[in-house]
């Protein structure tokens, strides 16, 4: 049960970390609102459940599309005007921090509105009672794994089998050269933000199966999202997959083991595990797991042994 929950949490963290990495690579912005993008998806799914009696699993496509619209809107309304005015990465980062606070306030106000029209409190909620087993394991484990496989396979096909994907990779690796070669950086940045919002909102639609959601959940989970991206390698999309599993499994399983020794009160400090791993990685290998030359590292270990 604990391992299942850890894998589900890791799967969702991967979606969030890939989105954060995409926007960082294409626009150089560390998006502090990524957690609130996920909470947006959570409340959208709750709305579909309360108003239209739509099961959360059936709302996943809706959350994906709506999250994409949110990500694109954020880029067009907030970031693109700042980039055109020559805003630095620090200014853009502060803008996402301000955006996160705005989203937090809007989601909080919306939760009150949804409580009023549905007759049930929306200040905090969880979908666990709505889940059901599939082949002896929890449904959210199967669904989150299928979503991860489908989205990563689609991303691979897009990046390596389409002309737009080649242009997108070129803009990630060397934006100046890509622009000289005729790549429209505006389109690639817009697409990256749209995809980032879609991935975050999709993760948010499944997150209530793993934990209780409140309007401030985004501010809490952003710690783990940043840790997953940086530990995996902030400049590498597939490093986000490695980082997501490293942080998700460590945070869940180590915190659980500590709770058996120190009591359940330790569970609220689970993010400390992610921060500790983040600090260690920055000290030992700041390029992240994906940036380490493992062949050279293994050879150096062999030479040391002999």
Primary descriptors:
transmembrane transporter activity, 306 residues, transport, single chain, transmembrane helix, two-stranded antiparallel ribbon, mainly alpha, BCAA_transport_permease
Give the uncertain stretches in residue-range form. none
> What count of helical segments does DSSP give?
12
Based on secondary structure, the structural category is mainly alpha
Net shape: globular
In percent terms, what proportion of residues is strand? under 5%
- How many β strands by DSSP? 2
The chain-level mean pLDDT equals 87
Largest sheet: 2 strands, antiparallel
Q: How many discrete domains?
A: 1
How are the strands of the largest sheet arranged? 1-2
What is the rounded distance between the termini? 43 Å
Helix share of residues? over 70%
Q: What's the SSE pattern?
A: HHHHEEHHHHHHHH
Question: Mind telling me the C-alpha Rg?
Answer: 20 Å
Membrane topology: Multi-pass membrane protein
Family: Belongs to the binding-protein-dependent transport system permease family. LivHM subfamily.
Organism: Candidatus Syntropharchaeum caldarium
Pfam families: BPD_transp_2
